[in-house]
Amino acid sequence: MTDREPPEGPPARSRRPPTAAVGKAAGATGPAAPALPGPTTGHHLGLRENWWQFSLYTLITLLVGMTIGVERVALPPLARHAFRITSVLYTVSFLSAFGAVKAVMNLVSGRLSDRRGRKGVLLVGWAFAIPYAVLIIFATAWWEVIVANLFLGVNQALTWTMSVTAKIDLVGPANRGLAVGIDESAGYVGVGVGGFVAGLLVSSYGLRPAPYLLALGVVVAGAIVTLGPARETVHFARMESAAAGHSRPDERAPRLRRLAAYMSWHDRSMLAICQAGFVNKFADTLVAAFFPLYLAQRGVSLAEVGLLVGVYAWVWGFGQVAAGALADRAGRKTPITAGTFLVAGGLALFVATGDHAAWFAGAALMGIGMALAYPNLITAVGDTADPAWRGGALGVYRLWRDGGYAVGPLVLGAIAAADGISAAIWAGVALLGASGLLLLALLHETHPHRRQGEPAWHAHPEWLVP
């Protein structure tokens, strides 16, 4: 860790570094960003001013969430019932494949969208969901399901990254927490709806093809909304950056390797954010891949599994609006840290008892913790990054975060294979507790009106330029 943030004290606008020079130096490394259709002036930032486009992108996020929600309930049982797979580690390998490609594509999509715009990347993301559903419907071996999840990883990376970035573009800094809260709320309400409906379809029509026909319908609806009324939003980000005097719209963002280094270890607050996102996905891995197997061992029906996953996702989803609004008033650090500890507590409650009521209470507690932490991790990155390279910064964070999807199933699956699923869940509890302690130690407040100093790159622009 080499973070050397400015000394604490009131923000001093007169100390703002010449950030335009950062853009100029970075711009010397390659061509300027290409012009996109539409004006770069005449836009007005704000949720109220852009409510229609914001609503459309919220609907898109809901549909993105439904796509992944289908998998969470319908896919883990498919390994045992359709392919006769009994190994926990091999069963959850689909999630590692999903997480690995999603993590890398988050990085690619965020960087690409800063130069090419959000809408085109989003459309490509929808296209990748079609082979995912078709491959699973016709799969005759488990490796084909794993390949299908590579397509789903690309889909989720491109669509969800772009939908949240578009919302941040539209609202500007004033309501950033609320915007991300609404985005993540819509997404995880969609996960809950998709999981619950998939559970009903599985109970009535079997594991294939009904849930994946539902996924195809959702994908088609999302592509229609994106191609039709949704509009490009990258102009808003360029306008926000220019208005703040940070950089010109034609200046190139920092090199990706420097941006990744800045996010990953130069700025210790961003280091704390990235590790929290990484460990957060261990908890979500347990719900997505291990809970259905854990509950099935105890004779719980797939319909009840779907309801438990739905409670977790719905509490998480609906709670994020309030959590985002809270962070706009009280800052980011407290809800992020408290939420991480609450997720650990919910996991512990879930595995410590065999009582069904306690399971639902644990799922709800995990949902509350996720609602507090998950959207505000993204918001903290949005607070720190210059709007001109915000897409790339979000991509780096999401690389770390969804890297937890790639590593989590392997680590937890190995523990489960050696000592049972309960031991894997307890390992998740320990990791989340350690993550919360790191947040307490390393994370500085990032809210623009509450932080005690400017982001670290203001004091050290050399971290972002050759």
Describe the structure.
The protein is mostly helical. The chain has one domain: MFS general substrate transporter like domains (Growth Hormone, Chain: A). Helix content is 76%, strand content 0%. It has 18 helices and no strands. Helix 2 packs antiparallel against helix 7, helix 5 runs parallel beside helix 7 and helix 8 runs antiparallel to helix 15. The radius of gyration is 21 Å and the shape is globular. The two termini are 20 Å apart. The N terminus is likely disordered.
Question: In terms of topology, how is this protein built?
Answer:
Elements lengths: L18 H9 L23 H24 L1 H8 L4 H4 L1 H24 L1 H21 L3 H30 L4 H30 L4 H18 L6 H10 L12 H11 L1 H29 L5 H29 L2 H20 L3 H29 L5 H30 L1 H22 L13 H4 L7
